[in-house]
Amino acid sequence: MNQNQVAPRERRGPLAILPLVLAGTLVFTTGTRAAEWIERPFDPSVGSRWVIQSNETTEDNRDGRVQTSVATMTAELTIEQKLVDGFRITYVVRNASYVGDARSTALIGPATKALENLVIHAMTAANGMPLRIENLEQVQATARTAIDNMTAPLASKPEEAAILRQMATRVLLADNQHAPAIYLATLVALALGQNTGMRPGETRNNDDDATNPFSGAPIKSNTSLRIGNADPATGSVRYIRTRTFDSDAIKAFLTKLAQQLGGTDSQHSQPIDNMMKQFTMALDSRTEIEVEDGITRTLRQEDTATAGTPGRSIVKHGHKLIMVMPAP
Questions:
Q1: CB neighbours of 250 closer than 8 A, spacing ≥ 6?
Q2: Structural domain of residue 249, as residue ranges?
């Protein structure tokens, strides 16, 4: 064999290596696909019980005078039945408390504890979002009795009794349409991170009505939901939800707030228009939702609302933490 002649074994070498290269590429591709994150469905087992703990702190700064309030709650959630398109559940608030300044504690505290140990039966969507209170009449009757009991000691102070009744009615009584959001508000928040159908890199935008931080009618807002990070191995995921507010809705609200802060007469538009030019307002909200095995386990929400005119200001900071864990 001369120097220019190649041995058959050597000539076949690259051809022999090619299948190995292709096999390696296939393994790499398969491994990459296997590592893609896939959302786990919300599917708690029938009969499972969950403890939900909520802590919400609000700091209200009005012209340098700061008032802090803390609302806490511990509830139990039981999955009673799995339906074709949802679940039948039982929800019970075991402990609830509110601590703030003396006046707000006297008004809000009793309303906070009014529905303790009341068993609420409800139906939810497939993602755990409450749809209907099945024993709403019983819940409403309990709420009305609680309101009567709260206002009875103030019989000699009709003005205070009227304020308390008005506030308690707004908090404790709701019709069929609004009952799930009132009595099962915590479950509404938790459902935001369940069965989203989202993929990494996707952003989902929605329009909705946000609670007015300064009381009054809700303000139209835009929400944005995206995946912060996701673990392909465990299926765990962290969602980030932010909220921005409709400029026209804020402008309409500022007109009313200008009257409250500036003491202007609503019949005189010019003073209000002048004050509006000096008005400032900002609303920010950010929520982080951590989901494990399809079930929201932790929700952290930070809200900031500011409003003011030259020489006057209102700043509200809200901090909410909800934690979900299997019942012992």
A1: 219, 281, 283
A2: 49-326
